[in-house]
């Protein structure tokens, strides 16, 4: 279904629910709500993408995402990893067990405090991680179709929305 062009001057109160096929009957109360719904719709393919990439690597989606979140250049504790993933430290035990079993990470006790486990990405883990990152972060066609200026404006707006304002060099 092709959607009609909507001018910025169009009275939003007269707009139909543009997301009827995504969320039947949804009527937007604000531009922010519509933007949020559009972002959700744009990323609806994320689950399929991570499932496919993880399966190709022989991992669960959770283990694949944990590997992506590890910095191959710097070891990290499981507690720090949990903080990065915004989860309980016990939650990272199973995926890191799977990564270790697959030879993708090495888990060793910290020398100064053996209660703390440090994770280091192996050479094999670096290769798998690089493939995952390439597959997961390849922009979808819908984003690649946007003109470069629109991509820049959208990126800048999203940086502001997530609290990471990017400073641009002056021309």
Map the helices and strands.
Blueprint: H1 31-42, H2 46-56, H3 61-69, E1 76-77, H4 78-85, H5 93-101, E2 105-110, E3 113-121, H6 123-136, H7 141-144, H8 148-161
Antiparallel strand pairs: 1-3, 2-3
Helix pairs in contact: 2-3, 2-6, 3-5
Quick summary of this structure?
With 171 residues, the chain is mostly helical. The chain contains eight helices and three strands, in the order αααβααββααα.
Give a description of the structure.
With 171 residues, the protein is mostly helical. The chain is 47% helix and 10% strand. It has eight helices and three strands, in the order αααβααββααα. It has helices at 31-42, 46-56, 61-69, 78-85, 93-101, 123-136, 141-144, 148-161, and strands spanning 76-77, 105-110, 113-121. A three-stranded antiparallel beta sheet has the order 1-3-2. α2 runs antiparallel to α6. The longest helix has 14 residues, at 123-136. It starts with 30 loop residues before the first helix and ends in a 10-residue tail after the last helix.
